Amino acid sequence: MDDLWDNIEKLSTVCRKAGEHLPDEELKSLQIGKVAEEAGEAMHSLHGLKGLTTCGDAHGWDEVQNDLVGAVIAALLAMHYIDPDGARTTFAEIFHRRTRRGREAAAA
What we know:
With 108 residues, this protein is an all-alpha fold. It has one domain (2-107). Helices cover 79% and strands 0% of the residues. The protein is built from 5 helices and no strands. Helix 1 (2-18) packs across helix 3 (61-82) and helix 2 packs antiparallel against helix 3. The mean pLDDT is 93.
């Protein structure tokens, strides 16, 4: 997990540099919006996979997965924007709490 967060921190540095002309609160808001955009792209790929788009694009599960990873990266970047020093710890705490039922079911 450290490699993941190390890469998120590096990417955050690059992205913050690109947005240095914007106020910090605006950067945070735009990054949270990026999460929704990436998730929407995953949904669009899923619609294409099921033949539900009018643009004629054919999509596969690989594209859906690519877009989902984009949403995860965007979300982790948003967490890092919100709290650069505490994002790793906050993520670990929330992840542990939100996966409790899976751990309990596996132990049963």
